[in-house]
Amino acid sequence: MSVHKIAVIAGDGIGPEVIEEGVKVLEAVARIAGGFSFEFTHFPWGCEYYLEHGTMMPEDGLEQLQKFDAVYLGAVGYPGVPDHISLRELLLKIRKQFDQYVNVRPVRLLQGAPCPLKDVTRDQIDMVVIRENSEGEYSGAGDWLFRGKPEEVVLQTGVFSRKGTERIIRYAYELARKMGKSLTSISKANALNYSMVFWDQVFEEVGREYPDVETKSYLVDAASMYFVKQPERFQIVVTSNLFGDIITDLGAAIAGGMGLAAGANLNPERIYPSMFEPIHGSAPDIAHKGIANPLAAIWSASQILDFFGHEGWGANVLDVIEQVMVDKKALTPDMGGTATTVDVGTEVVALLSTIHIKHV
């Protein structure tokens, strides 16, 4: 029996509540499927840890995490700790040091999910956004000159290396080829005359190796409009770190809200652990109330299953998420229900045990 070793960083706010349900679902899948199991090790890192120790994670935190096959992250951020500290000293630190240069965000309108767009069918919102995850606008490069003086100047430098740009674009081309789908690049070359001109050039260069892949290119402002007006234009999308961060939240909004938003941070070569997380944030206003929606964390659990080669079970978990939303018996208040976080996780486990398994 194969054992998948998972480091769990439940984090802040609602993180521990939703991650507990995701862990419950993964354990249930392993129990039902047989042939593999999960070994979870919990780390108490995050903002509460920071307030006690002055750091988001211990000095040897990355060394500890490197022993695992994957990281399952809940949420980062809480009042009293500046966002740039909570983000850069845990989440971005893990992404960069473990070279998790591929961020995968599914934007898919599941059956039963609420959609704010009028007269849109499920098949019109079904895309995967591939976001560059290690450099670009979030590289942290720049300077702060003459601080506090009238001539104060700040410089924020986007870093676009050929290696970083080419490998994310190539990953997206490979995925589009594998799935038989079109690939759309989103940039802003008309205004960003170095970084995005270079991005477009690399997209065209790599594309010559994939003549079978249909391609499109949009400016990010036009793409944002089409996400709302004509989402069916998009199947596989590749874009930079900043633009990917923004358009994936827009994608979540049209596909049921942040309560259904999941993301994977991948090191495709598997030299380092990859990391999986719900994207909704720590939501401190509803923490400890038992009403947080765990479906995004459970969708992240399905991505973990995919990552370990159990794609059939990953698809089964998505089927069950859909069934929960269709049945409406166990939905949290953000989706119009009265169920608790634990109720939703328990319902997912119950359905996994009883539904007809389609994908294995």
Automatic annotation (TrEMBL):
Its EC number is 1.1.1.83. Residues 5-348 form the Isopropylmalate dehydrogenase-like domain. InterPro entries: ICDH/IPMDH, IsoCit/isopropylmalate_DH_CS, IsoPropMal-DH-like_dom, TTC_DH. Gene3D superfamilies: Isopropylmalate Dehydrogenase. PROSITE patterns: IDH_IMDH. It catalyses: (R)-malate + NAD(+) = pyruvate + CO2 + NADH. It is an enzyme of class 1 (oxidoreductase). Its cofactor is Mg(2+); Mn(2+). GO terms for molecular function: D-malate dehydrogenase (decarboxylating) (NAD+) activity; magnesium ion binding; NAD binding. It comes from the Bacteria. Pfam families: Iso_dh (PF00180). The keyword Lyase does not apply. Keywords: Manganese, Metal-binding, NAD, Oxidoreductase. PANTHER family: D-MALATE DEHYDROGENASE [DECARBOXYLATING] (PTHR43275). Belongs to the isocitrate and isopropylmalate dehydrogenases family. This is D-malate dehydrogenase (decarboxylating). It comes from Peribacillus simplex.
